[in-house]
Amino acid sequence: MEFFVQKKILIISPEYWSHIPVSKHHYAMALARNGNQVFFLNPPSSKNSIQEDSIYRGVWIVDYVAIAGVNRLPAFLRDLINRYQIHSLKKLCQTSFDVVWSFDAFRFHNLKLFNAKVSIYHVADVHHSVLERQLANSADIILSVSQKILDRYSYAKKRMKKINHGFGEHFLKVNEAAALPPAPLHVGYVGNLNNWNVDVTTMLEIVDANPSVQFTFMGPYQPDSLIARELKQKANCTLYGRVDNEKLPQLFEQFHFFMMCYGIEKRDASSNSHKILEYLTTGKPVVMNYTDEYDDKRDLVFMTDRNEELPRVFQEVCANYQQYMAPAWVEKRKVFAFSNSYLQHVKTIDQLVVQYLESQDRNSFATSKPLL
Length: 372
Known about the structure:
Shape: elongated
Number of domains: 2
CATH architecture of the largest domain: 3-Layer(aba) Sandwich
CATH topology of the largest domain: Rossmann fold
CATH superfamily of the largest domain: Glycogen Phosphorylase B
Order of helices and strands: EHEEEHEEHEHEEHEHEHEHEEHHHH
Helix content: 25-40%
Strand content: 15-25%
Structural class: alpha/beta
Distance between the termini: 40 Å
Largest sheet: 8 strands, mixed
Low-confidence stretches: none
Number of strands: 14
């Protein structure tokens, strides 16, 4: 690391620190492990407080009371109030920030107000925020998990880079692969079954067409939803409900391969998924709907262009499972997955920041006037 060493970094998160760990949390942990002080700004609450996490030393959880209705005000009033809020945050944290790193499209839309050395806008999903354009324009660097999403910000003419999803440290602990019986095949699925984008029709078609295959679904669901009612009635399906992410590596050992089944009509929404990397850490096959970021990685996954093709491809993987578990295939999937750890991503972003700062120094030198 050249830049991310002993820096004071503010992460603006749309999820609380107590939320199931997602990218914001993992970046905070990785940065803190490298000797930085990380201030993790929770969404607005009813108190102003700061407390160091008891497990992840160097991560400070910050709560604050926001002033309501700021986003509806004219820009000059919005900046005035946000400047006051930022001053209060710095006072609460007893420091200014070297880096402000925002994952939140709905607050602090002018990152320049922080007066940080570097400001980053990190986009993990498609947002519909009327002020997001200002946020992108105020950032020094824009990151996203998908090129398709990143292209939405080309108007900002900023330094931009695609950074793939990552995975938690617990997936880095390599376990001896469990010997699985050749039959019945056992398929794992991780995801919120309440998600609006789940392709229920195709998923049920696959389950019905493969009665000898066992399916385990891990993720929250509404008991009275159509998909939950249908799956519970099937002898070859088990619904675990919500599962702690740290337990997934151990649970993954029991599966022969994995499945992902989302609708692809809205391509931005299906441009990438963090679950794919978690699956690939096992080296096992993944049968999945079209996902833009894997269009050039079809040697790693079994991906269809249309969901109508998923049932056929699923059965093909079942029929040729041993062939697709050849050591060379397994190793290739693992190598790709482990090249996308959060620590690796922080190193990549570190270099991007260094390049940005060097370009700023060159520009400053080129525009400076000689003393007379």
